[in-house]
Amino acid sequence: MTPTLKITQLCKRFGGIVVADAIDLEIHSGDILGLIGPNGAGKSTLFNLISGVYPSDSGEVCLMGQRLNGQSITSRAQSGISRTWQHMRLFQSLSVLDNLVVASRFYEAESLVTLFFQSAKIKKLQEEKAERALQILQRMELKHLCDWAIGDLTFGQQKLMGLARALMNEGQLLLLDEPMAGVEGQSYDMMKEVVRQEARGGRAICVVEHNISFVKDLCSSAVFMFAGKILERGRVEDLLASKTLEALYFGAQTDGTAAVEDTL
Ligand SMILES: Nc1ncnc2c1ncn2[C@@H]1O[C@H](COP(=O)(O)OP(=O)(O)O)[C@@H](O)[C@H]1O
Ligand SMILES: [Mg+2]
C-alpha cells in the first residue's frame, strides 16, 4: 500500500545547526505515529519541513506518492496536509465559528475571479464551510460556544479549536504538534477521542507529544528524535524501555532540562 507520507533522507540546517539529519519516515492511513524527543530535537522543524513552512536542503517529501518538494505551504495544505501548531495561532478577536470558516479558505484556493463575480457560488461555499465547522464543533461539544470570542474559551477548549481548525481540511495527513500541552479534564478526553476517530476514519496521523500516557494510549508505534536525527523507532512499549531514551530523554527530565509534563 502506498504510504500516505513518505520522507526520504530529508536534511535541513539552520546556520551551523543540523536540525534534520537524513530523516526517513513512513506513515500509513489509520496510523497514529508518536514523535517524541527532548526540546530542541527538531520535532516542530520536521513538521515545518513536511508542511512547507521551510524548504528542505535535500531529500524528499511525498504525499500519496506525489513529490511535494518546492510546493508552498498553501499548495501542500490543498494537497492534503493538515496540521496544528505548537502555539495555537488562533484569531483571538474572531468568534469560534469564524476561526474555522476563515481557516478553510486557505485550504480551498478560491480564485479572485470567483470572489468578485460569483457571489451566489461564494455564498453557497460559505454556507457549506459553516455547516462543516458546526459539525466539528458539535463533535467536540463546543457548538454552543460558536459565537464566543476565542479569548473567552478555556485553554483546553482553545487547544481543541486548534484541532478543529486542522479538521476543516479533509486531507489524508494530520500533523499534531503538542496537542495535549496544558490540557486536562474533559478537553483531554475529547482530544484523545477525536484523534482516535480521525485515525479510524483513515487519516494518517503523526503526533508530537511529551505526555507519555497520551502516546501510550493512542500510538501503535513511535520514533525518538534527538539532535535532528531519528535515533530509535518501533513499538511504543519497546521504545519506552530503550536505554537510549532513558539517558537522552527521561534522564533530561530528572535534571530539569526538558519540559516533560507526564511520566510513565
Ligand atoms: N527558524 C529557525 N531559525 C533558526 N533556528 C531554528 C529555527 N527553527 C528552529 N530552529 C532551531 O532548530 C532546533 C530544533 O527546534 P524545534 O524543531 O523547534 O525543536 P522541538 O520541536 O523538538 O523542540 C532548535 O535548536 C531551534 O533553535
Ligand atoms: Mg516543538
Notable features of this structure?
10 helices, four-stranded antiparallel beta sheet, binds adenosine-5'-diphosphate, Rossmann fold, disordered C terminus, 2 domains, six-stranded mixed beta sheet, binds magnesium ion, alpha/beta, 264 residues
What this model shows, in words?
With 264 residues, this protein is an alpha/beta fold. The chain has 2 domains: 160 residues, 3-Layer(aba) Sandwich (Rossmann fold), CATH 3.40.50.300; 63 residues, no CATH class. Helices cover 41% and strands 23% of the residues. The chain has 10 helices and 10 strands. Strands 6-7-8-3-9-10 form a 6-stranded mixed sheet, sandwiched between helices. Strands 2-1-4-5 form a 4-stranded antiparallel sheet, covered by helices on one side. Helix 3 packs across helix 5, helix 3 runs parallel beside helix 6 and helix 6 runs parallel beside helix 7. The C terminus is likely disordered. Adenosine-5'-diphosphate binds next to strand 2 and helix 1. Magnesium ion binds next to helix 1.
